[in-house]
């Protein structure tokens, strides 16, 4: 049986990902990475998924999902089904049926989009879009979580997830402190479930997906001089979640079609399209208005939690001092909005107007957290 060209996701690989040559062996799917390492997903534990940008990428995962072998060759699914001893025929068939269903649904969304266009022309663009945004805002936060979880599962994470308890516990401590004040006056009794993931990558960024998935890169942790700076960035991202900016931006991208599907409860049906659209969250491409409101809500949360809310403005100021050319491309929420002085002034002005309150410092060994985030022991 011929070999296939594809790749591997694994924590054993530097950077978490590598190209690979894939072959179907008696024991399972075997991938030989470009660095010479051999990886095997055994037939008995193999779980298949199809997705990726083209919708044709086949992902073969082991039982605990720590290893994924992937291939986009159009012959690969049939080869998996026919491989002796694979037992994957039923999974392959279900996977292909699901892809066909998604294609039909895409055509259905196109039809619905054309109908929506007619409504826009008849009823007026702004009126219809206002209705769509209102419908999305009225949905329960569980919808945000479903979309965000689908997106997190499908996204490439830039690197392996860090398991060091010194670092992870520190970030969870910050999120827990802020989370107690994250929904005040916003969602009533519907609290968001914030879940922390620390990704080992030299990326100066953090982002949050609808529903509460919080991703913090070790590059950002190492760059913060004190925990209040990082807490300010995390509070800003948590505010995007509680203010539901993510689902609002998705609604702006897909418009009335998405609103109708979600209101009717067809959450799973739009999940694939939602995954692609939710990728904007990793680059934080929010509007200026959303950025400003997330700054303000983040400051409120920091103050309520007894943390120093000026940590956010100090972080902005340090980025500005380092020079626009040195701001990493990944940090879109600062690099695409070059009004640093305005944002710093707005944060400081808000803090000046807050009631005096004693700070309750985070009990963290911050130097140790930063050191461990850089992989130093």
Question: Could you outline the blueprint of secondary structure elements for this entry?
Answer:
Blueprint: E1 4-10, E2 17-25, E3 28-33, E4 38-42, E5 47-51, E6 57-61, E7 67-71, H1 76-82, H2 89-123, H3 125-137, H4 141-154, H5 165-179, E8 195-199, E9 206-208, E10 213-217, H6 218-223, H7 227-242, H8 245-254, H9 256-263, H10 271-278, H11 288-304, H12 310-322, H13 332-335, H14 340-352, H15 366-373
Parallel strand pairs: 8-10
Antiparallel strand pairs: 1-2, 1-7, 2-3, 3-4, 5-6, 6-7, 9-10
Which key features would you list for this structure?
50% helix, elongated, seven-stranded antiparallel beta sheet, single chain, three-stranded mixed beta sheet, alpha+beta, 15 helices
Question: Could you characterize the architecture of this molecule?
Answer:
Helices cover 50% and strands 15% of the residues. A seven-stranded antiparallel sheet has the order 4-3-2-1-7-6-5. A three-stranded mixed sheet has the order 8-10-9, with helices on both faces. Residues 118-129, 185-189 and 324-338 have low confidence and may be disordered. A hairpin with a 4-residue loop joins β9 and β10. The N and C termini lie far apart (46 Å). α3 (125-137) runs parallel beside α9 (256-263). The longest helix has 35 residues, at 89-123. It contains 15 helices and ten strands. It has 377 residues and is an alpha+beta fold.
């Amino acid at each position: 049986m011929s070999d296939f060209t594809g790749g591997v996701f694994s924590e054993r690989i530097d950077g978490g990902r590598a190209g690979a040559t894939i072959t179907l062996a008696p024991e399972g799917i075997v991938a030989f990475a470009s660095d010479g390492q051999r990886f095997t997903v055994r037939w008995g534990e193999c779980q298949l998924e199809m997705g990726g940008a083209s919708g044709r990428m086949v992902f073969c995962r082991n039982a605990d999902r720590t290893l994924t072998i992937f291939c986009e060759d159009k012959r690969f699914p049939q080869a998996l089904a026919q491989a002796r001893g694979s037992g994957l025929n039923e999974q392959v068939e279900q996977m292909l049926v699901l892809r066909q269903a998604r294609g039909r649904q895409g055509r259905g969304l196109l039809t619905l989009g054309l109908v929506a266009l007619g409504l826009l022309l008849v009823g007026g663009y702004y009126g219809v879009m206002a209705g769509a945004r209102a419908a999305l805002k009225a949905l329960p936060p569980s919808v945000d979580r479903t979309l965000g979880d689908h997106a997190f599962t499908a996204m490439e994470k830039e690197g392996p997830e860090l398991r060091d308890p010194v670092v992870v516990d520190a970030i969870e401590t910050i999120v827990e402190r802020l989370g107690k004040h994250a929904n005040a006056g916003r969602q009533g009794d519907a609290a968001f479930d914030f879940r922390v993931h620390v990704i080992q990558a030299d990326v100066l960024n953090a982002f949050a997906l609808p529903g509460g998935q919080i991703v913090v890169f070790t590059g950002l942790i190492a760059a913060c001089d004190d925990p209040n700076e990082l807490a300010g960035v995390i509070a800003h991202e948590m505010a995007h979640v509680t203010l539901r900016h993510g689902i609002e931006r998705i609604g702006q991208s897909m418009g009335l079609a998405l609103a109708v599907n979600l209101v009717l409860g067809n959450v799973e049906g739009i999940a694939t399209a939602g995954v692609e659209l939710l990728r904007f969250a990793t680059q934080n491409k929010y509007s200026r208005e959303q950025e400003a409101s997330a700054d303000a809500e983040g400051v409120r949360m920091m103050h309520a939690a007894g943390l120093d809310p000026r940590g956010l403005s100090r972080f902005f100021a340090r980025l500005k001092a380092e020079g626009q050319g040195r701001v990493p491309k990944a940090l879109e929420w600062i690099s695409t909005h070059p009004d640093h002085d305005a944002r710093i002034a707005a944060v400081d002005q808000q803090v000046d107007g807050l009631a005096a309150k004693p700070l309750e410092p985070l009990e963290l060994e911050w130097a140790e957290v930063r050191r461990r985030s850089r992989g130093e022991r």
